[in-house]
Input
Amino acid sequence: MADEIELKTAPADFRFPTTNQTRHCFTRYIEFHRCLSAKGEESNECERFAKYYRSLCPGEWIEKWNEQRENGTFPGPL
Amino acid sequence: MIVREWLFLTMAACDAAEPWQLGFQDAATPMMQGIIDLHHDIFFFLILILVFVLRILVRALWHFHYQKNPIPQRIVHGTTIEILRTIFPSIIPMFIAIPSFALLYSMDEVVVDPAITIKAIGHQWYRTYEYSDYNSSDEQSLTFDSYTIPEDDLELGQSRLLEVDNRVVVPAKTHLRIIVTSADVLHSWAVPSSGVKCDAVPGRLNQISISVQREGVYYGQCSEICGTNHAFTRAPGNIGRLLSPLWLSRTTRGATHPRSKLLQRAAGAVGSQGARQ
Output
């Protein structure tokens, strides 16, 4: 069927095999922004990382981190 | 109760707790099947031990009597029996531990890549669900709150303290990743028939992977004391079911309807392609 949506989400990551997935979300968020700074804002290659972190992180966290990045107070290595 | 069931045959909730229920709810996932099987396996040996110990106890009490045995035996020591009654009881837990650990670790295992990620975020006292696999920006996300329906607003056939206003709808026979977290205090996301109970900790994301094997409406309750309304506003989610790939449009819409209507509509969606919209 043409109109069928493909079910797809962030794959299981061997770096994060445990129940605790907090780092998984955080790492994917950092990976996306590192990718952006390496490849440039227009690059489409980073889109998959964005999909991963959006799948994994609660919206509230993403909002907070985005705000922190704007203010330059983001705690992670970007 | 019986009269009510007789009048409304469709009311029997298969995947919710029943009055005076002693056993498990029907398994909906391989995980729950494993739990039930392990329980039954262990219970077999448990009953054997119980009968054996009771026999010793009752026999000793029965024979320790001033008329039947005026002169009691005065055994204070016996090396053989002491070794036996130490070794045997310590071997039994070892044999119980083998299948138990096997099940425990296989439940944690993420075997295949999940197809859908659902975020269940605990609040006092409701749950927020996020489906964001198809977001193309940080702002848009399919998010909805799921509150328990208050007792006064229940419709006929709805379960008290179990029914919610917005159900979670997920596909059956699909590997799901459920990310459980909390926005305020500790909660716990639990669905008994799926064999799932996962603590929701603020600032931490806990993952559980389930694969629901059959379609149905599943109920669960918060399993961590989370404040005054924990007992009355238990508000975890109900796993609904999914029948068509176009479930996103359905997740919030069909939810306010009583169970039967949801099922009817869902069944219609599977039957004909025209109903998919």
In short: Chain A has three helices and no strands. The mean pLDDT of chain A is 85. The interface with chain B takes residues 1, 3-5, 7-12, 17-22, 24-25, 51, 54-60, 62-63, 66 of chain A (CB under 8 Å). The helical segments of chain A are 22-39, 47-56, 59-71.
